[in-house]
Write a structure and sequence with these properties.
ammonia transport (chains A, B, C), homotrimer, globular, 423 residues, mainly alpha
């Protein structure tokens, strides 16, 4: 017999199937991050890098299940609850928060993949010199506490979402990427540069990565996963996912093109690693506004992000924040930029969700909220990261000893080299 | 005009789309298996390893189409039919078996991916010393006959499914993984250890794999594919896929964490390859119970599997079963363990499908059926594998000659090295 | 309240979700193409190869958005419009063409992935000696103009689709693969062979690729993506996607098996790279008829393509078209073969879409249309490619200078080697 519920139930199933597939795509991004970081660093640290990325996901998933999800989405959203949640530990309870028609386990799978992403971003900036034990501890704290608090503020219905003009960060340029990027910057600053990164004259010397194939394969995998990241953030099956996917494509493509052209014009040769980072920069940039900008806006954001990332990398080089893979520039700087860009290029006016941007006649309301959101998240993450890394430095220590750094973390931290030429 | 059929037809389409996507994820696991095996072995055999994995899928798919599917799912399920099928050769006939609302071709695609997995598991344990011709013949027999018979007993509606308390192996801890793992153990035993694997003193000497990046990239790809493997085994769109995915995530994560900690405590350093194997061990372990356990059960299974795999690897080392990638431990031992764990941790009582496990007040009924299923499959596969490998050894021969083994299978078996440094 | 629109709207959402997922799978093929090309060539050019594949997608996507989509699908289809479109630039306008129930952005995402594939195919044949600047320009022209015109003729509703018995190329054996393959042949001929490819005696000398792992990993990724390519070409959710997926599996498997056996019989050893190319040849071959052939037809097409590709590679070797990865043979020759095979093995008679093939009692009508389509596309693409490459050769130049070719394109074109062994 036909009943209203039947049609609805099919729609519910479709929503759940689609978001689970999107979550799987985002989980695949873990491989992409590992490959990019491994490719842009030296072969003597490659096993350490894969191990860090593996544990980001594994420890992060266990802790996000136990704690993080409750902090991000649990309990009611008034008072202190608009800053931090606290219900639904271990995903237990019938009243646990989920979104729309999504089964709580499907929503969790999507969210846990995002949490792992935030943690993984930091890995790259701290590569080639961080103690594995400290890394594990750091990664645990961001997955269980820091990232979930930031998510609470917006996707968990907290104070940023409760602004008169709500902050808008569709898929996480700020919540995921800038959170990762700022933590990365603090971590890299606490660690100091790798041995040999700056000459006796204080000038930066490039330490080339050991494998462009790994790096660009990782970039392609990240691109693929980003369709789940952005289009999946609609959190239901909707025809809107098409435009979101197109914006994702265009911004990434424009970012790669712009970064390539910028290096070509600056140094006379199109740089491959930077083109890959440009793709990622464009993707990070459009993530906040993937639903609210049009194709032109996506291209402008991508082009700008692709240029910005090149100059940001130079800037951090100059101030001696040694970030081997450019994570701070890609995720931190372009994450902030992309979030602010919503206030400029939003073409959509949806009551209580988002207002039109400045360039589309919407005034500065949305832009102001974007500034508030970016500034608040940046300030909180900065302070939290300083406390975290200062504590780790004072206790277990952050950095491996120089001999280990010179000989490679693979053998010293893990007992075996990442590459073996044994017969 | 509205009609009942219309709503149903959309649901049917959704089921088919979802299971086809899940099948594609499982097919992607072929790349994961190839990478893990290649990474954990030496560079001189790398082309051989990729070729074996390629042919597992290609020859396996052709034979499963021609023969295997009919053996697993064809004909009626009484009498001899509860042990072996025999209808629907070449997927022909209108009455051919499929599941629920699935188109027979969609169901076949999902099943053929599983068949390829079972065959591929063996490859790792027999790496670096098996004649390619023998490998091809073995792989053909498992895809066409051995694996399909085992599937017949349970998923094909055979005698294990017909037990008063049916055996429960949701996505194949026993049917797929243990079948592969036991065949792998027999194969490795028939072959004998690689030259140099044991010193003059009889003690094992590690032969390090040539590339952690390949191995862990493969592990990530397997993780991604496992969401199709487990959640797809619901064989329809259902909100249950969420909990299945979460159990998969938690068990894999717990397995990696436990294996890492076990090696850290045993040897003083967290071992990267073993952490990867721990992830796979956790995934194999939860595969049987992915639908019937809760999050806590999944974590317990994963933690246990992660510890078990480390000790199992040491055990097979000691008894001189040389398994270069740990396939017997990961798939055989943890496959059996995970299947038995259903009898302990099942929280679901579903008439004629599964009973609650011992720890959830369900008595020993399910556990007994699990023991029967594991023992029966193990016994059958063991005997079949002994016959198979004894026959191959007596005819075409199993092992390459020592010079070839020392110089590498790539050049001798395939004519070219896997890596070339030509200008 | 129930309404007809509600059921329809769920179906529409399902169609869009499925095709977006299929598009993502096709986009993943970019990584596969990059890996195959990189693996089958030398390490000194590997960064250049990844950069080319990255830019194929990025520049291609921007131009297909701006221009290509309008040329392929825009405007009305009569008169000149049956040869070239011209509306919907930048995907703008409400009346923009889409297919069936697909959102225009979803359809675009699927189509842009195909456009990138066509461009990428050429890269392999021109590897290791093409100026990057020329490559960029070529790639732009094919994505913006040449490929879209070919698509217009058939999928855009143009003259090939308007034949009394319409040309049938389900997922693009001709439109995508042969277009890429013929352009590749012309490009390789204009470039001339790599230094050292032919001895002083004029005989070909093999230049081995540097990494079978990269090449076969890429092959696996292409296989996975091909399910999106072929099954997605149904352009809606339908149970037909099952049979399409099975045909894809069988033809690919048969192609790999046949190519392996052919090399085994010819040279005494089963060749790994050629087995991989055989898989791709089978996939290319079945792409035109994936919907209209049955399993047997798919196997026959795959077996034939696997044999053909081996001999085609030898043939181009002999006539001194130096195609480092066999792209002309795989995509050009097997693309043409597979398209013609529709006229032989089609089992489906669907009014105005396709007729039965010769071997299934359908007469020669479909075969004649297939010949017309293949010949017309081949002729157009050949002429367009000659004009394109002649123009590039006469202006910016096609080929790097000999010193750069010998030392590698990575350092000369991009400033850094693809692999670094720095400490």
């Amino acid at each position: 017999m036909l009943s209203e519920a039947t049609i609805e139930s099919v729609q519910v199933l479709l929503d759940n199937v689609w978001i689970l597939m999107a979550a799987v795509l985002v989980i695949m991004m873990q491989a992409g991050f590992a490959l990019v970081e491994a490719g842009l660093t030296r072969g003597k640290n490659v096993a350490n890098i894969f191990m860090k990325n593996l544990m980001d996901f594994c420890i992060g998933a266990l802790l996000f299940f136990a704690v993080g999800y409750a902090v991000a989405f649990g309990g009611d959203m008034t008072g202190l609850g608009s800053y931090i949640g606290g219900d639904g530990w271990f995903l237990a309870g019938d009243g646990i928060f989920t979104y729309g028609t999504l089964d709580k386990f499907v929503f969790f799978t999507f969210q846990v993949a995002f949490a792992a992403t935030a943690a993984t971003i930091v890995s790259g900036a701290m590569a080639e010199r961080t103690k594995f034990k400290s890394y594990i501890l750091y990664s645990a704290v961001i997955s269980a506490v820091i990232y979930p608090i930031v998510v609470r503020w917006q996707w968990g219905g907290g104070w940023l979402f409760q602004l008169d003009t709500p902050f808008h960060d569709f898929a996480g340029s700020t919540l995921v990427h800038m959170t990762g990027g700022i933590t990365a910057a603090v971590g890299a600053a606490f660690l100091g540069p790798r041995i040999g990164r700056y000459g006796a004259d204080g000038k930066p010397r490039a330490i080339p990565g050991h494998s462009i194939p790994l790096a660009i394969l990782g970039t392609f995998i990240l691109l693929v996963g980003w369709y789940g990241f952005n289009a999946g953030s609609w959190l239901a099956a909707g025809t809107e996912i098409g435009a979101i996917a197109v914006n994702t494509t265009l911004a990434g493509a424009a970012g790669a093109f712009a970064a390539m052209m910028t290096t070509w014009l600056r140094s006379g040769k199109p740089d491959v690693a930077m083109a890959g980072n440009g793709l990622l920069a464009g993707l990070v940039g459009v993530t906040a506004g993937a639903w609210v900008v049009n194709g032109l806006g996506a291209i402008v954001i991508g082009l700008a992000a692709g240029v910005i990332v090149v100059y940001a990398v130079s800037f951090f080089d100059k101030i001696k924040i040694d970030d081997p893979v450019g994570a701070v520039s890609v995720h931190g700087v372009c994450g902030a930029f992309g979030t602010l860009a919503v206030g400029l290029f939003s073409t959509i006016e949806s009551d209580g969700i988002v207002k039109k941007g400045l360039f589309y006649g919407g005034g500065t309301d949305q832009l102001v909220s974007q500034v508030i959101g970016v500034a608040a998240v940046a300030a909180f993450v900065f302070v939290a990261a300083v406390i975290l890394f200062a504590t780790l430095k004072a206790t277990v220590g952050l950095r491996v000893d120089p001999q280990e750094e010179i000989e490679g973390l693979d053998v010293h931290e893990h007992g075996f080299p990442g590459y073996s030429h044994a017969d």
